[in-house]
Structures are given as C-alpha cells and as structure tokens.
C-alpha cells in the first residue's frame, strides 16, 4: 500500500488522487479553525513556503471530531484559511479521522504510524486523558494538528503528535530534503 493509492474529496466538491503528489515528501495534517493549536496554520504555511521548492508538500484535512472545533462548511474553512493565515497549501474537504466513518487514508496513516502519545505531551495529554480516555493506547488520532510524514514513494515515515510544532518538524525535514 501507499498513500498515493488514495483519493480524497476537495473543498469544492471534486476529488484528487494523491498519486499527484508522488515524488514529494508529504506532511498530512488534520486541522481545525477553532482549536487552541490553530495558530499552527501560520507555521505550516511558513514551512510550506520555506521547503516547498525543495520537495515538501503540506496537505490539510479539516476535521470536526475533536471538541466540535471545525464546525464550518468547506467554503467557510477555505475562507478562514485564506483570510487569517494566507494558506497556499491544499486544504481539502472536511473528513473523519477516527471511528466507523474514518476516511480510508486516515485508517492507513494510523495503522502505519500508531504514534507515541503519552505524558510527554503535557497539557494535551492531560486534556485527552479527561475528555477521550478511550483513545489512549490506541492508534487513533488524539487531537487536531496531528501530522503524518510520508516519503516520496508514498510510505508513512512517522507521526508527529499535535504538540510537535511545524518549526520542530522543519528542522528534521531540512536534512531529508
């Protein structure tokens, strides 16, 4: 299997084959507009602008499964990203990352990189322990702004939990690109 085998819905109602991004490193992120981590959009855009020409492509997938923090329509989400963060990387249609309705892409990402979410993630670990304790110890995405790094052949390299910032990821990616 490869990430390139998946098709995802675009915000305008179309679809996109992820094979289009073959040959590039991908950073796949589930995002939300009303989350305490939403300012990561700014750092993701900076990372996209800094490393995009060197082979990095950021792909964002809005998700409303964590505290209802992405309530808007796809068009409202696009407007929010453009106006507030001047986002130029693709922000796709809203989808589920966990549960029975999880998009197959996210089922694959989670299986390939189950994560290492634990107390080292501080405030977010405490929050998830109280609000979603059933998710602990599973491969579920724990919260908004979980990031998956995919290599140019479509293999999942690793998972970055939400508290790992785009700046920290950028330092690691600079050596790969």
From TrEMBL:
<keyword id="KW-0575">Peroxidase</keyword>
<dbReference type="GO" id="GO:0034599">
    <property type="term" value="P:cellular response to oxidative stress"/>
</dbReference>
<comment type="similarity">
    <text>Belongs to the glutathione peroxidase family.</text>
</comment>
<keyword id="KW-0560">Oxidoreductase</keyword>
<dbReference type="InterPro" id="IPR029760">
    <property type="entry name" value="GPX_CS"/>
</dbReference>
<dbReference type="InterPro" id="IPR029759">
    <property type="entry name" value="GPX_AS"/>
</dbReference>
<dbReference type="InterPro" id="IPR000889">
    <property type="entry name" value="Glutathione_peroxidase"/>
</dbReference>
<dbReference type="GO" id="GO:0004601">
    <property type="term" value="F:peroxidase activity"/>
</dbReference>
<dbReference type="Pfam" id="PF00255">
    <property type="entry name" value="GSHPx"/>
</dbReference>
<feature type="active site">
    <location>
        <position position="35"/>
    </location>
</feature>
<dbReference type="InterPro" id="IPR036249">
    <property type="entry name" value="Thioredoxin-like_sf"/>
</dbReference>
<protein>
    <recommendedName>
        <fullName>Glutathione peroxidase</fullName>
    </recommendedName>
</protein>
